[in-house]
Amino acid sequence: MSRTVADRAAAIAAVAEVFREHGFEGASLSAITARTGLGKGSLYYFFPGGKEEMAEAVLAEIDGWFTRAIFSPLRDDADPEAAIRRMLRETDSYFRSGRRVCLIGAFALGDTRDRFAARIAAYFAAWRAALAEALMRANRPEASERAEHAVLAIQGALVLARALGDQAVFVRALERLERELLAE
Amino acid sequence: MSRTVADRAAAIAAVAEVFREHGFEGASLSAITARTGLGKGSLYYFFPGGKEEMAEAVLAEIDGWFTRAIFSPLRDDADPEAAIRRMLRETDSYFRSGRRVCLIGAFALGDTRDRFAARIAAYFAAWRAALAEALMRANRPEASERAEHAVLAIQGALVLARALGDQAVFVRALERLERELLAE
DNA sequence: TGATCTCTGTACCGATCGGTACAGAGTCGG
DNA sequence: CCGACTCTGTACCGATCGGTACAGAGATCA
User: Fold this and answer.
1) Which UniProt key words apply to this protein (chains A, B) (predicted)?
2) Could you name the CATH architecture of B3-182?
3) DSSP letters along B38-81, please?
4) Looking at CB atoms within 10 Å, which of A77, A164, B154, B173 has the fewest?
């Protein structure tokens, strides 16, 4: 891995946190330079398209991570129930038990949605479809309905946990999901 | 009702829509003047505290509406099951079947949360508590758990419906909630 | 009519916004 | 040692940000 790629990857991770905290509009270049440790010169060297390109890179990175860690196992793992449990475990860990916000969910609520509508929709549609596939393979009835409800409950749990400042809300929601998803 | 109050009330409603679409940081004074039809002079006459005071007024207005239309009936209506059905009906109507976003939920996700943390937490806590109260009065088991899950599912449904650009997701979620909440 | 109060438009403030231009530091193969 | 290429800091751009100051329009009442 060249030094360039490593730096760019590190920058993407840092930029993601800034977007997560401030949203797309609210993520000022000065906040991004502070967090990444990169000056404007470097930033526009890595992302000539400016904030828009940074956001694209961040969304692609997140999408890639979820595909690798969660969606693919749900679709392909020989043991679909294990894949579902893994999804819940990885989700808890990724969102830091509710302390971390879903960037894509946050983007979906604001007017940022229009700009990245395709990517945002694709992310949630992929999650819903992969989970439905796993439920089908596990012979659970109403797979589509359960899958949609689970994806939606995770997003809602993130909102509510953050609103109440109580991560236990998120943990409880995931426990409930495990029961509901795997019930016959 | 004096003209002043009417104008201020109308302004609050218009400002609420701007916050809803752009978030707190993203709601520029120029967007607010455009939407309200009021110049800066009038705006700062009605809200001397600027954007912060506008947001406070908007949050108070929303909280008042929900208390009147939903929370109070859940707590006090002689028929708690009817109050729950009313909650679902009013929720569907308020959020335009998923086309409209929850301003308070959106605020909760961004860094705006810290500024209005108390109000945001109070709103969701009141909803959860009022619904739990109604479920208790209706002799449903696990009232607290069901209530928390319902509040969370509504927020999640708003996120997912908007992310996918498909309001049917929201409608389905409400139908599911009616079944779950009123089940023995 | 004249005094008063409510409301509004406009000019203006310093700060910050996202973005550009560009010189040059640092590193590398030849 | 010499270009060539990668990366970075800085100066600068016009636009817009939230907020202030204030004169005065318009209605109201004595």
Assistant:
1) DNA-binding, Transcription, Transcription regulation
2) Orthogonal Bundle (1.10)
3) --HHHHHHH-TTTHHHHHHHHHHHHHHHHIIIIIHHHHH-S-HH
4) A77
